[in-house]
Design brief:
Layout (H helix, E strand, L loop, with lengths): L6 E6 L2 E6 L10 H16 L5 E5 L4 E3 L4 H4 L4 H6 L2 H9 L5 E5 L2 E3 L1 H8 L2 E5 L3 E3 L13 H9 L1 H10 L3 E2 H6 L5 E3 L4 H13 L3 H13 L5 H15 L3 H12 L9
Helix pairs in contact: 1-4, 6-7, 10-11
Bound molecules: hexanoyl-coenzyme A.
Amino acid sequence: MKEYKNILTEIKGRVGIVTLNRPKSYNALNYQLLSELMDSLTSFDKDKSIGAMVITGNEKTFAAGADIIDMVDASPDDMKKSPFIPAFDLIRRIKKPIIAAVSGYCLGGGCELAMSCDLIISSESAVFGQPEINLGIIPGAGGTQRLTRAVGKVIAMEMILNNRTLSAEEAYSFNLINKIYPVEDYLKHTISLAQEIAERAPLAVQAAKEIINQSFDVSLTEGLQNERESFFNLFSSQDQKEGMNAFLDKRDPSWKGD
Ligand code: HXC
């Protein structure tokens, strides 16, 4: 497996795991880290032996945001040309499900990264926030949009205008995250959830991810049309025949991914 400087990668069963690894700067997301993250996700996405991915940090920090050192002297043009935000766009092109396993600080670009994933599992110690207002800026990698869609306008306004942070319990009650576990085993539970999903019919999993994510971009009519086309297409897959025959034969299906 490739060696990276700012992340660690590992494969467990059918799960590709990326650990953000700049602990001294609280996993601040600099371009090099993001570019390594995107490179690793892209290669996991191409690898047929992998069915789902996990992005995590350490117990104290998922990520404390974009690296402020990289932005302090930037002009609007520098930021426009910076590969930083396009790196976040790349995550949207990953076909397999990605789960964020969050503990400790999950702030700014870190929270935007977690929200770019398909599910978020958190430890009891997680703190979610968009503190950009303290730096004289606003979120730039999807925070105003994804946070608002998840928690609703009033909470998003409080978080983005006034740096309100959310505990794990609050994040759960506002539908930002899927589940909370003790710090000792949030990662283990995230990896087993990823493994369960990774063992399901790969084409159906990817189709479901794509259509659900598209639903935020399109009208209900268009979304229903997309769902229907994708549903029909799956009937050309071997896995649809296998899944339905296995049910009728009262046996477990054996998925081929085609
Ligand atoms: C660069 C960072 C950093 C960041 C922490 N560090 N966050 N460096 N960019 N986002 C560094 C600190 O400078 C310090 O380095 C070390 O990590 C430890 O941080 P401390 O502040 O000493 O620790 P602590 O007192 O425990 O406070 C932790 C913290 C705080 C609450 C997470 O560090 C913090 O508020 N960080 C900034 C959070 C933030 O504003 N995020 C939004 C960034 S803007 P040294 O060398 O001194 O030990 C953003 C916009 C994205 O994300 C938009 C898309 C383009």
